[in-house]
Amino acid sequence: MTAAMNTSFEPSSLLPAVALGDVSAFERLYDRHSSTLYALLLRILANPDDAQEVLQETFVKAWTNAKMFDSVRGSDVAWLISIARSRGIDRLRSRKIRGDREDEAGREVSSSFGFVEKRTGADDAIQSEERLAVRGALAELPEAQRAALALAYFEGLSQSEIAEKLGEPLGTIKTRMQLGMKKLRESLKAFR
Amino acid sequence: MMTHEQLESIAPLDAIGAAAAEEASAFHAHLVSCASCRRVRDEYEEASTLLARDLDPVAPPPEVRARIFSALDGSGEGGKVVDARDRFQSSRWWTAAAVVFLALWGWRELSVRVGREKDNSREAEIRHMAEENQLLTARNEKLSAEIAALASQDTRTIALTGQQVSPSASARVFLEPQQRRAVVFFYNLPANPAGKSYQLWILRGDQPKPQSAGVFDVTQSGGASISIENLPLATEIKGLAVTLEPKGGVAQPTNTNFFVAGNT
To answer: What are the pLDDT digits (tens) for B119-173?
Structure first.
């Protein structure tokens, strides 16, 4: 781990200032993390309108609930991602319940926003140092573990739904996800 | 009943939202009283965000920023949203009216949303307080049961003495054979190092291997207590002993360096 890499992960929490009603801190928070959250919501919802609406909900919630943030429990970005992911998955599920699920066309929309699995050299050139470090950590995950975690994280599937989707025994999926998460947790410790 | 180790193994699945409903339920009940698992769960949740941070960032349209900030402050940013729309209007007066209408409508809409978020936040706080109340009630019931165990006429007292690695340590066991439960108080044990926990073992006459009776941590004061439910029959308990084990405990002791021990 290089010193520069540590610097890029150094927590610089804006949420305590946001909790005190500091709008400029909130603006910096938005400018710093909105692109990450929007990419996540596009990945989950595959629909720009829905993603923008949930992004807005996420930041409104961050503004009203900032006082509940505890920096001991995690970073600003992790807190925001947890809110966005939770709301995104809720929206995805309610959409599924309504039978209004996005079809393949929606997936095509999502790929046009640049989060296709296979990235180009030009993409790599603009990676920030932090994301390169994250990518390095994720590259260490075996593909099978990564695929199972992605189904849970981005599609909100339970372990039994993942087992059914991948045609694997439930116990295998469970172990695979536990091992994958343990590796991610170890990677996170290395960043700190 | 699941052991601490089994419950902790649910943490990574719970953090990513993939635990089975019954597992999640048992784990969440356990979290109320286990600071160690709460910390582990938080770490897994933060680790799961690496999956999101791996995605190529995509800048949201500027309108989103404008809408959010106009919800916080009705001036400035909200105007930008409206200005972008007036290019599509044929009449300046109609545009002005539309601007006012849209600004008022947008402001009202977002104010309602902020209000709803505040309501949700208050509801979350109320739920949190209700959970804390439940926890306190549970603790109160547990304490009452422990006091009853200590005060019962049938309660037997067993002394555990410090062994070679910690001669000044001791423990006192209050065993209620009828209820098959006990409360154990430990004194002068050295604080357990990070990554290690003390584990209490029941040495049984009817089984060759010791049985775990629970895992506990000791602070700088050297004191700790542990409640044990569903004990074996008193006649089957030969003795009790404490070892230092990996954090969270193990299925069988990994060493025979007893800190306190005693026969029943």
So the answer is: 777 777 887 788 778 778 777 777 777 777 677 777 888 889 998 888 899 999 9
| Chain A with chain B: Cβ pairs closer than 8 A | 169
Long-range contacts of B115-119 (CB under 8 A, 24+ apart): B117/A57, B117/A60, B117/A61, B117/A63, B117/A64, B117/A65, B118/A64
Residue A110's Cβ-count burial label (10 Å; 0-12, 13-18, 19+) is: buried
Contact B56 A114 (CB under 8 A): yes
pLDDT digits (tens, 9 = 90+) for B75-134: 333 333 333 334 444 456 666 777 777 778 777 777 777 777 777 777 778 877 887 787
Q: Cα–Cα distance between A122 and A111 in angstroms, integer? A: 16
Interface check B46 vs A, CB under 8 A: yes
At B119, list the tokens: 């309501």
Pairing of β B196-204 and β B156-162:
unpaired
Determine contact: B129 vs chain A, CB below 8 A: no
CA B164 – CA B257 distance, rounded (Å): 8
Contact at CB, A138 and B54, closer than 8 angstroms: yes
The Cα–Cα gap between A43 and A63 comes to 24
Asked if residues A173 and A166 have their Cβ atoms less than 8 Å apart, the reply is: yes
Going from the C-alpha of B41 to that of each of A138, B9, B66, B108, the distances in angstroms are 20, 10, 35, 39
Q: What is the DSSP letter of A89?
A: H
Tokens representing B242?
């404490």
Min Cα distance B47 → chain A (Å) is 5
Residue B43 has its nearest CB partner, among A55, A152, A185, at: A185
Q: Choose the closest CB to B50 out of A23, A138, A178.
A: A138
Burial of B53: CB neighbours in 10 Å, binned 0-12, 13-18, 19+ = buried
SS3 of A26, please?
helix
The answer to whether B169 touches B187, Cβ cutoff 8 Å, is: yes
Three-state DSSP class for residue B238: strand
CA A176 to chain centre: 20
- Beta sheet of B156-162, edge-to-edge order: B211-216, B196-204, B237-246, B260-263, B156-162, B170-176, B181-187, B224-228
Q: Is B109 on the interface with A (CB under 8 A)?
A: no
The DSSP secondary structure of B98-155, one letter per residue, reads HHHHHHHHHHHHHHHHHHHHHHHHHHHHHHHHHHHHHHHHHHHHHHHHHHHHHH-TT-
Tokens matching residue A98: 């309504």
